[in-house]
Amino acid sequence: MRFLMAGGGTGGHVIPALAVARELQRRGHEPFFVGTAAGIEARLVPAAGFPIEWIRIGGLKRVGLRRRLRTLGQLPLGTLEMLGALGRWRPAAVFSMGGYVAGPVVIAAALRRIPMVLMEPNAAPGMTNRWMGRVVARALLSFAETARYFPKGKTELTGLPVRDEFFALPRKPRERALNVLITGGSRGSRTLNQAARQSWPLFREAGFAIRLLHQTGREAHAELARDFAASGLDGEVVPFIDDMPAAFATADLVVCRSGAGAVAELAASGKPSILAPFPFAADQHQRRNAEVLVREGAARLVADREFTGRRLYDEVRSLDREAGLLERMGEAARRLAHPHAAQRAAELLEQLGSGARF
User: Counting Cβ atoms within 10 Å, is residue 48 exposed (0-12), middle (13-18) or buried (19+)?
Assistant: First the structure.
């Protein structure tokens, strides 16, 4: 069977869809993607060996008036193009991660009565997925509280697909030095980078035993690496971490943003965290994600505007001071983990493609 994978623009949309596509392929099916030439899917999907069809559409959230009007103008044309394309492609079912790329696809699929499964990675759904909840066969969620945004009986708590390596990480015994991983994502975070640099003299002057592994992003790396070398602290500052599960394995504590992928990896690996939600994320979904971990006792939340070197230092010292606290936070994070998310999504798509109705 052929399955259409919709959702693009960011890694948070594309990477989970690729995990589901790999599972479908493993089961003998033919997944293919729809995306834009400007989104990250244009690089990641072909690199993963899957075919991709192109659509012309832009975003609506946090864009200027001209861009929004252009996107609204593209939506009817994109939907008409998808109506024709779906007739040619004849997918057995559609899988969507939401986002602006998915809009014309899911509207056209609904008009053609093609069964759909969506996956909502965040605690607060985006615009496309909120609308889709009325027409899909099943909405797969990462957080139980997200069910209130969808019709009763249509949701299932599956979590977000995460690499098996994160689930396989053993519990790490504490060493004399506290191992802290700081990462603002592949491009880095200016807020986290600045706070980390401001914290170095505080840790050094306090004689605090700490080892830092900091992913800065490529643009900020040279300057931060030079300053860290002069700080007198143990650790490493790198532009990019190729093997993130290995980096998690060495960490006693993770400092990061709270996108859906990061939160899922923290849960899968059972790592305590200090979370600084990206303040401009659509619908404040990063803050909502972080709040779930905080309520479960798995994380501390610090607002972006408050995330200074002094605050980072104080939070790390506070967490380290109470015996067993980091270990309890890690266990709380692990209780939020959901393995087999990609397998469950593929299973549902197979059932729908075979004519099942839920």
Answer: middle
β-pair partners for 255: 182, 274
pLDDT value, residue 63: 42
Pick the closest to residue 260 from 129, 68, 116 (CA basis): 129
Nearest to 96 by CA among 78, 80, 114: 114
Hey, CA dihedral for 154, 158, 159, 163, is it positive or negative? negative
The CATH superfamily holding the domain 166-334 is: Glycogen Phosphorylase B; (3.40.50.2000)
Sequence ranges of the domains in the chain: 2-162+339-353, 166-334
Calculate what percentage of the chain has a pLDDT beyond 70: 94
What pTM does this model have? 0.86
Considering only CA atoms, which of 297, 290, 299, 293 is closest in space to residue 272? 299
CB 118 within 8 A of CB 96: yes
Q: What's the farthest any 2 CA atoms get from each other in the chain? A: 67
Angle at which helix 260-269 crosses helix 285-295, to 10 degrees, equals 20
Spell out, as residue ranges, where the chain has pLDDT lower than 50. Answer: 58-65, 67-69, 71-73
What would be the CATH architecture of the domain defined by 2-162+339-353? Answer: 3-Layer(aba) Sandwich (3.40)
Residue type, 227: D
pLDDT at res. 57: 56
Collapse the DSSP code of 48 into the 3-class scheme (helix H, G, I; strand E, B; otherwise coil) and give the result: coil
Where does the chain have alpha helices with state H? 11-26, 41-47, 65-89, 102-111, 127-132, 164-167, 190-206, 218-229, 244-250, 260-269, 285-295, 309-321, 325-334, 341-353
Please provide the average confidence, as pLDDT, over all residues in the chain. Answer: 91
Note the Cα 256 to chain centre separation in Å: 12
User: What's the distance, CA 54 to chain centroid?
Assistant: 23
From the list 1, 109, 131, 122, the residue with the least C-alpha distance to 55 is 109
Measured distance CA(281)–CA(131) in Å, rounded: 19
Q: What is the pLDDT of residue 61?
A: 47
pLDDT tens profile 64-85: 445 444 544 455 766 778 888 8
pLDDT at position 79: 79
* Interstrand relation of 210-215 and 273-275 (parallel, antiparallel or unpaired): unpaired
